[in-house]
Amino acid sequence: MDILVAGGGLCGTLMALALSQRRLGVTLLTGSAHPLPIPAATGYSYGGIPWWMGVGDGGRMLSGQGLACWRQLQDRHGDLGLRSARLLLHWSAADDNAAVDAAVAVLAASLPEGTRPERWDRPAFCRGDLQALELTCAGAIGLPYGRIDGRRHRPAMERVLQSQGVRISPGAVDQLLVRQGQCIGVRLTDGDILKADGVVLATGAALASLLPLPEAGRWFPYSWASVLHLHPPQPWPDVILLPLLAGRERMERQGRTGVVVDPGLAPWGGGVVFGQASSLQHQSRLPGPTAPTLTGPWQPSMAAAQLRRALAEFAPGLAGAARRQQAAVRHCPVSYSPDGRPWVGGCPGIENLWLFGGFRGGFALAPVLAPLLAEAIAHNGTLAAELGVDPGRLLALRGSPPRQDKAVRGDSAS
């Protein structure tokens, strides 16, 4: 059985690995699945692993397994970039105290028994390594955390996949080949035809542009994400800062357009990234080569300006360094799910086509769900209905947007 996996980011590489471990023939297509040079979201991610995240009703199924999965993968295949880290979920003086207390309670309820967040006031966590940032947040809770170092992860995964017999191609998918309701392969952007027994789409924001479904753009949407890359005046500790009350999550639940900035910081590329600025796009399909100008509420200059303004308010000590360095703002599209759950499973109406994306907290959930989908593909099965990740649930809905599960904090920009 030969499977094509489209998408060379986190989801695509984990799917290719899981399929190869079930003795399937796997070809991984790493090219941009879109005519424009759209950057992959994985490369700009914080790499944080909110290990307490799960799926299903209330998000409790499979929770707590993400970090363990990464440790098992690293024990088996060598260094994949897994690093320990400290997570600080912060809030500002402007945040409602009741909302902060409620969010802390939701997070505490999602953690494994015996694990409790450590709550600090501002002076307690603004000492030492973080003092020079002049952080303005009012308080935070601390948790043990994990992260994937992207600089190490990408070449390491390429080495592992090659050792497992995965064929890696820079080809990019232009069109799915569907005959009589079955996916039989893909046509690449260079015109080549690749036949296969099945295709897994792990192309992130480009997924809706590839699906021959009339409402694909509605139920498999994307947002634009922007981060600011800079080098701090001193080495950055293994600390990730994220807002406890993430604006991106509220915007997705409400389905509204606009730009919102979630102030966070994380190690990245020998420096740090700040942000992210997020904007939902309701046209949902990425623009083609005949429409290179992005439309809608998001524009790169607007996102950059809001990021720099938020940095000056959040960490004045770092904002000065950003101005001196002329720090670069990086933009990429990010897939998300309207109901907060990923889409993992067969594509409705098309046999031998599977979807793997829409993750919030992908570094926690993708390594858990990839082996389950690979097992279903290998044995012509389906995932358990109680996981609540079947893509068909979205395409079956009409009218108002589907209900969103309660958000579990600590996964923005992860």
Could you explain the architecture of this structure?
The chain is of the alpha/beta class and 414 residues long. 28% of the residues lie in helices and 26% in strands. The protein is built from 12 helices and 18 strands. A 6-stranded mixed sheet has the order 6-2-1-10-18-17, with helices on one face. Strands 11, 13, 14, 15 and 16 form a 5-stranded antiparallel sheet that branches. It has a 4-stranded mixed sheet with strand order 4-5-3-12. Helix 1 packs parallel to helix 5 and helix 9 crosses helix 10. It is globular and about 65 Å long. It starts with a strand and ends in a 19-residue tail after the last helix. About 5% of the residues have low confidence.
Which helices and strands, and how do they pair?
Elements: E1 2-6, H1 10-20, E2 25-29, H2 66-77, E3 82-91, H3 97-110, E4 118-121, H4 122-125, E5 139-148, H5 150-163, E6 167-169, E7 173-179, E8 182-188, E9 193-195, E10 198-201, H6 207-210, H7 216-219, E11 222-230, E12 239-243, H8 247-254, E13 258-261, E14 265-268, E15 271-280, H9 300-314, H10 316-325, E16 328-335, E17 343-346, E18 353-357, H11 362-378, H12 392-395
Parallel strand pairs: 1-2, 1-10, 2-6, 3-12, 10-18
Antiparallel strand pairs: 3-5, 4-5, 7-8, 8-9, 11-15, 11-16, 13-15, 14-15, 17-18
